Amino acid sequence: MKADSYIFYRPKKEFLQEISLPEIIFPVRKENEKKIFSTKNLKIDLLFEELLCFLDAHPQYKNQYRDPVGKLAYHIGVQLGKQGKHDQAKEILGNGLALNTNNISLRTNYATALLSTGEKEAATVEFLKVIQDPNVGVSPHVWILTARLLADQKQYNTAQEILEECSTFFPESETDFWNFYNFIDKKSDIKRTEEENIDALFQENEIPEEYDLSKNEDPFNEEEGSALGEKKSFASEKILCSQCGTPLSAHEKFCKNCGTKKKSTPIAKKEILFCPRCGAKVIKGAKFCQKCGYSLYQKK
Length: 300
Hints:
The chain is mostly helical. It has a domain of 116 residues. It has 10 helices and 4 strands; from the N terminus they run βαβαααααααααββ. Helix 9 crosses helix 10.
């Protein structure tokens, strides 16, 4: 489709401000002009469809329209979600996310739409991507929801790691959280024992060296590098007093030795390249495998 089959529309400032868009022109096919502008209210969903159609035919403009696509998708998707139109919201948010893979607001709402349409496993994968983003802080609501989804799929160890991360946000009076935490903690102990038995069976057989993480030395050293051309590092985290180093339990808010408020202190880094459970490649800084959900924290 040629660009000359489009007219280019410059929205009013009020519309741009509503969606926090810079001044930009939107392509509209001539035959659809009346559908979009026939009423006083601009039909944003149709304008979004026109933009996607234009970019499909003219991919060289994707970078120019990346931000408008993301903001339009978020605005339309949230409105559809509020109206209970979750299938449509999922499609719109997914289209926006395809061009804005680092947009956390889009991904969170896309995951919510997936959950609302009953696609729990797909929603879990998206929520894990949100949690793994190093630029995003702990959002207790999202983290607990993800832990519940993982528990439904019997991935108790990963659920427990997530709850441990956000436990400092909840005082002991939050009994609902701590009851759930203790339930998952017990389940993760049982699950971990099962996995250790499986690991023992594997140790009796030959394990490909590149997947064998039981050795002390790192098979992916500086000299060898990695298949992706960069090193992949993951940190195992224990909660220690930042002042004196005393180990602290999940329930303790202050150090019993020196009284310092508890903070998470990362220790003992371990560099790996593949998920030890399924062998999938993992991205730098990930805490969980995006394919199977396996916790990538270093086991002690």
